Amino acid sequence: MSVKDVRRYLNEFLSDDRVLDSPKPIQQFVLKCFILPNRPKKSAHAYSTIWQPEGSPLMITSKRLQALVQDGISVPVELAMRYGSPSITDILGRIAETGVEKLFLIPLYPHYAMSSYESVVVRVHEVVRNAHPSMRVTTLQPFYDDPEYIEALYESAKPDLDAGYDLLLFSYHGIPVRHLRKADSSRAHCQIVPDCCHTCSPAHATCYRAQVVKTTEAFVRRAGIPKEKWLLSFQSRLAGEPWLQPYTDHELERLGKAGVKRLLVMTPAFVSDCLETLEEIAMTGRKTFLEAGGGSFKQIPCMNEYPLWVDFLQKRIQQWLASVPA
Predict the structure, then answer these.
(1) Domain 147-299 maps to which CATH number in 3.40.50.300, 3.50.50.60, 3.40.50.1400, 3.90.320.10?
(2) Is 114 exposed, middle or buried (0-12, 13-18, 19+ CB in 10 A)?
């Protein structure tokens, strides 16, 4: 991926009002003056370390997953990307040309966040409303604590767990703390109520942190992992304001200095391996940990094309099909 390609992608991505949600003039000032002049070159170098002859690992895996899910499903299964190509606009246009009027949308994010899950859902509905108003969209809700998702996650990670480890670090994609408060419709729970993630509230339906906590706790219960053998952290932040903590890079350095011998790192916010898992964790994260004095480091792969993950998606499609009136 060239610097020019990365600049184009970052411009589209960071112009999304649910990613950089400052007022538009401020958003564009920060983007044009502080991010786009330097970050594309750095990101292009990072992409070059994971690029494959066929292209982006994320796209390669996503296409393979699409093909596997299509097997055994009686309706077409399409793939679109929130940013870049194939775009949501193009794919919805192609679907509409076939006469489809009922659509099942599966955002490939287990957890609700305005910068990921919500952005996809809103964009699909915008395109449908403006270009295909007769189309009816049903959306799969975040599946962060669905028992079948947890089982797929556990079984895909089991070989690495069985190989032995001293500590398992769950690293989730970070978001600004401000996004938690913004997503709390009550304006009275997130970051206000003590132990808010464990205190029952309707706010949890749109609370990213509460949902990743539930995923982690469901996983460790299923795997039988004692409390002293796992930690939770957040990666991939932008400078300038508080993001969810603890930060993964800080934790990796701390754990290395503490002399952890066998570290496993798992990234459940990502269903497919991508830049954030292959370069940020498996390469840069590993280097940070080892240079700080740590022992062995292993990134557990994402579910990618794991059979139980494919089964999970096929079952959700079949359930939707069974619910749709003839």
Answers:
(1) 3.40.50.1400
(2) buried
